[in-house]
Design brief:
The complex is a heterodimer of chains A (129) and B (103). In chain A, helix 2 packs across helix 3 and helix 3 runs antiparallel to helix 4. Chain A is 61% helix and 3% strand. Chain A has a domain of 89 residues: Histone, subunit A (Orthogonal Bundle). With 129 residues, chain A is mainly α. In chain A, 26% of the residues are buried. Chain A is globular. Chain B contains four helices and two strands, in the order H-H-E-H-E-H. In chain B, 73% of the residues lie in helices and 4% in strands. In chain B, helix 1 packs across helix 3 and helix 3 packs across helix 4. Chain B is mainly alpha-helical and 103 residues long. The chains are: A mainly alpha (129), B mainly alpha (103). At the A-B interface, helix 1, strand 1, helix 2, strand 2 and helix 3 of A face helix 1, strand 1, helix 3, strand 2 and helix 4 of B.
Chain lengths: 129, 103
């Protein structure tokens, strides 16, 4: 049951989310030297937004199941369980995040696992410090 | 190399919206049950909304970024196979079932 306030907040978040999706989708289409139609982008944006809400619900359930109040990286990786490649990709991204923490002085391990799906290889994400 | 991605704060806001909504539901359900909560700590534990750790948010951003990327990439593959220069709704339609199964 959504209050009016809830509804306007949702609409605001959906709009901001749509903007980010547009930029990601267009950048990706460019990689393939293609254009992407507005309808498609709007569709993907709305779908991804619904998915984000669903993801939030799943993460909460996983954390609760583990007896925690706070969602952590393991929960997110678990949410990707349907697809091996996705889970592996997230796991290595997660390891890189952990390695960047000030406490661990470990060198970042280069993620050598590559997805064999045709996509821009971003399994090693170079986050500028 | 600059990677286009979602803003962790935006994702956090979306999650918080979902979680506070669910926390309110739980609170409502609990007051509806006239039962004395067996675990006294249980009542307050359940009504506080879930939170997320920073790395989990960054990972969720990556998750959603991959979702969008995969959708576009798979549709692009179909468009290329058809020798068309623009990704249209019909291309998206065809990859949608497998996309949803994979995520």
């Amino acid at each position: 049951m959504e209050t009016e306030e809830d509804q306007s907040l949702t609409a605001l978040l959906r709009d901001r989310f749509r903007l980010s999706t547009i930029s990601i989708a267009q950048a990706q289409a460019k990689v393939n030297d293609l254009e992407v139609s507005e309808t498609v982008v709007a569709c993907v944006a709305d779908l991804a937004f619904k998915y984000a809400e669903q993801l939030g619900k799943d993460l909460e359930l996983f954390a609760q199941h583990a007896g925690r109040k706070s969602v952590n990286m393991e929960d997110v990786i678990l949410a990707a369980h349907r697809n091996e490649h996705l889970a592996a990709s997230l796991r290595s991204f997660g390891n890189e995040l952990k390695a960047k923490e000030p406490q661990s002085e470990r060198k970042r391990k280069k993620a050598s696992k590559k997805e064999d799906k045709p996509r821009a290889s971003t399994s090693v994400v170079d986050i500028p410090d | 190399m600059e990677v286009n991605s979602f803003d962790p704060d935006l994702i956090h806001s979306i999650f918080k919206l979902v979680w506070t909504r669910r926390a309110l539901e739980r609170e409502k359900n609990e007051s509806a049950d006239a039962l004395d909560s067996e675990a006294g700590a249980g009542a307050s534990k359940k009504s506080r909304p879930t939170s997320a750790n920073g790395n989990a948010l960054k990972l969720s951003c990556e998750f959603l970024r991959i979702f969008v990327t995969e959708a576009v990439q798979r549709a692009a593959a179909i468009a290329e196979a058809e020798d068309v220069s623009k990704i249209e709704a019909t291309h998206l339609e065809r990859i949608l079932p497998q996309l949803l199964l994979d995520f």
